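Appendix B. One record, verbatim.
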Amino acid sequence: MDKEHKSDNALLVVNNIEVIYNRVILVLKGVSLSLPEKGIVSLLGGNGAGKTTTLKAISNLLHSERGEVTKGTITYQGDLVQDLTPAELVRRGVIQVMEGRHCFEHLTIEENLLTGAFTRKDRNSDIRFDLEKVYEYFPKLKERRKSQAGYTSGGEQQMCAIGRALMSKPETILLDEPSMGLAPQLVEEIFEIVKDLNQKEKVSFLLAEQNTNMALKYSNYGYILESGRIVMDGPSEDLRENPDIKEFYLGMSEAGRKSFRDTRSYRRRKRWLG
């Protein structure tokens, strides 16, 4: 791992964790990563690589799926957090936006957003102020504020899920597959909002994403996961120029465009793990 990236300004540090499901299935094997304060870090890899499991290990959502961290440590602001409940972690400033645009379908957009402030103990006027701030970032949500979430578009539901997370006033958001199932134009719009939130609100993001090109465009640093292991990491700009990444994840090689399916898995593993 890049020494500079594991500097003293690290907000979140995952150190050599292993995750086992049902006490027998080893899913993550010695995963280490670091999220700096006010940074955007991407966690990349194909379906089943272990991205979602990594986020759930950090946000302590594994137990509902019979998973547990059996080795290693997870620290946030220098404190061990792997034994905290998800609610306690939210109060510490860490919240996960789940894959699949999870909204309460029977509630309106605005009611969904307000559920994000459930753990807050400040005044209603402060909560309303933050609600209006969410609407500034997501004007489409303001237009649909009285609509039932289940009848809104996929893009609007993704915006609602991120907006609801913002209502908890987080310091760090774990964002799982924000581009899944969305049109390219909407994906770009959501990533632009992520960049704005990072720059203006100083929210740190750990993004789990299959859309490698988009994730590397907006993040500062990236980690590549394969079969539950980190096989490569580095500054996003360097990863975008890496020939292996270009060939296997960005669909480019020296010979031109290339399908990921047509690429031989053993070559990839030999280059990175051998």
